[in-house]
Each structure stands twice: as C-alpha cells, then as structure tokens.
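User: For my dataset I need records formatted as: sequence, then structure tokens, nothing else. Please produce one.
Assistant:
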Amino acid sequence: METRVAVISIIIENPEMVERINALLHEYSAYIIGRMGIPYRAKGISIISVAIDAPQEAISALSGRIGRLQGVSAKAAYSNVVTHVESGERGRA
C-alpha cells in the first residue's frame, strides 16, 4: 500500500456542522498527523488545517465527505512524498 502526505483545508461557515466534521476526523484519526483550528470570529467562520499521511483514496474520501456538508468547503493539497508501507503498518514514521 502507498500513502501520501497531504493537507486538507476546511472552511466552516455553518457552525452546526462542527460536530459532524469532528466525527469524520475521528474516523480517520489513525492517519492524521496533526490539525490546527482557527476561529475567525470577526467573519463568523472557522478554519481547520489537517495534515494527513494516508492512502490517496482515504484522503480524497475524507475531503469529499467533509466538502459535501452544508456550509463547509474542503480542499486537499497533495505532496509528492509517497511511502510504501507493508500491510498492517500505518503511513507514519
């Protein structure tokens, strides 16, 4: 299996979706390297960056699932760092 390092950028305009986003991130927590959340109170939005090392299909699935939530935008930026891992191992070093 191959994993890639990526960053998923999330902008939340609908605060009612925060719990659903956190639940989705929890589903993929084994792949998440770290996350940073910034509440932008002056604009009434929240911004989350998630660093992830996962199979490309998992990154795309997570970004797509988050982006389909009402009032939420998500985009993934992929690095060229690809790692081959044996079955049962995680993508992190």
